[in-house]
Amino acid sequence: MALSRRMVAPVLFVVLLLVATEAVTARVVSEERHCLSQSHTFKGMCFSSENCASVCKSEKFPGGECKMHGATRKCFCTVVC
């Protein structure tokens, strides 16, 4: 019984350390900023974000999405900046 009481504090410390590390990691991942760059090869008005994403992937971007630009929808490629 005395051994288990001595182990409570170190075990609790390790658990709290792991929880704090996970919280910091989750916050850093959620704070990633995504920059947009208009596609150079997409032609016409952008109606499908899936089509836009495939064109952006051919331009070496990880993805893309249709966004309003003025009165028209254009294809913008996304990248983590």
Automatic annotation (TrEMBL):
Keywords: Disulfide bond, Signal. The keyword Ribosomal protein does not apply. The keyword Signal applies. It comes from the Eukaryota. Residues 34-81 form the Knottins-like domain. InterPro entries: Defensin_plant, Knottins, Scorpion_toxin-like_sf. Residues 1-26 form the signal peptide. Pfam families: Gamma-thionin. This is Knottins-like domain-containing protein. It comes from Urochloa decumbens. The lineage of its organism: Eukaryota, Viridiplantae, Streptophyta, Embryophyta, Tracheophyta.
